[in-house]
Amino acid sequence: MLAALTLASALLAAHPNSFSSSVVRVDGARVAVEVRCQARSLAEALPLDGDRDGVLAETELAAGRDAVERYVRERYRVFAEVDEAGATRAPLELVLGDLSLAPPLGASDEPFVLATLAALAPQELEGLAVRCTLFVEANPLHRDTCTVIWNGGEEASWLFPEAGEVFRFVPDDRRRPGVFAAYVRLGVEHILTGFDHLAFVLALLLAAPRLRSIVGVVSAFTVAHTTTLALASTDLVRVESRWVEMAIALSIAYVALLNLLQRKPSARWVEAFGFGLIHGLGFASSVADALLVERLKVTALVGFNLGVELGQLSVVVLAFWSLRSLPGERTEPGSGTEPGATFIAPRGVRRVLACGAIAFGLYLFVERAGWLAGVA
Question: What is the pLDDT of residue 336?
Fold first, then answer.
């Protein structure tokens, strides 16, 4: 109850739309911080307005320089180390440099205060963390937009405190191996739990006469889904996910039906490539949310696609070995003078699996179309 009353009183006393911006520039071991805030925000946090006229003058700001430096150093902290668990260590000692009133921004007549601070780390930085709680004790709705500029090139932004009280920044060259490995795992997990994609690959496998044709089919499927995965993940192609998922379901039923009617083995490169384009759109929808906030999009896409391929190949090898190990007649009856054709899988197994894949694909289609929603 007391906390709620304190929050309510702080909100009533503070001015609306309280915001600030900060820029952290890193150059080797040197760190320069620039904080630009509304003069009213600073006056609410510190007793700087000596004549209480509601206007912060240059002389009042200069008289309160020591108080401003203590306040900013306490509530805007930069750390030189960020470990793998995200913990912050080795705080840098920021020293206040220039402190002055700044002209209003745009059409606003709101006066601003500009403060610059600097610190020197013991050695060249490999990453850093910023903790910002500026003005939130006087105005809980205050927001600070922080931008880190790393060695004059790479930039990243953060909104305090909405995105979190601590902004942990690791440059891309250090993040790249971890991002790549994480997306490889994500790709493997996606394909191994994506039963619709696995059913389609299995349906392609049932039509093959030998391992060489399987390699060709899988390669065509890979090229196709890699293409649309890249295009969709970079927003160059947009298709509603519901239609994509319905088309993937129909692709399973269609290829399985061809297998059921087929009497000669065939490497289904055309089907693998054509439907692979659609499956790539499905892969893209599964990774789209993660890529929204990922700066290393190319690294992430390459890792995810590699993970998909590793998972897919492991399934293909296991399925090929299993089908070849099963007993049973593999040759379909010939017609007239033509001899019968031999498949990888036994004849009975091929037909059972084809029927199962047709049923599975049609069920997925009906479910994804929403036609099962009213069924009890």
Answer: 56
- Contact in structure between 256 and 365 (CB atoms under 8 Å): no
Number of domains the chain is built from? 2
Instruction: With respect to residue 71, please indicate whether it lies within any of the assigned structural domains.
Output: yes
Helix (H, G, I), strand (E, B) or coil at 225: helix
Q: Which domain holds residue 298?
A: 175-332+340-368
The pLDDT of residue 374: 54
Answer whether the bond into residue 265 is a cis peptide, omega within 30°: no
- Is residue 375 in some structural domain? no
Positions in the chain whose pLDDT score sits under 70: 1-16, 82-88, 105-108, 263-267, 334-341, 373-376
189 and 41, same structural domain?
no
The radius of gyration computed from the CA coordinates of the chain, to the nearest angstrom, equals: 31
Helix (H, G, I), strand (E, B) or coil at 121: coil
C-alpha to C-alpha distances, 115 to 85, 109, 134, 220, nearest whole angstrom: 32, 19, 13, 59
Distance CA 304, CA 341 (A): 38
CB neighbours of 104 closer than 8 A, spacing ≥ 6? Answer: 110, 111, 112
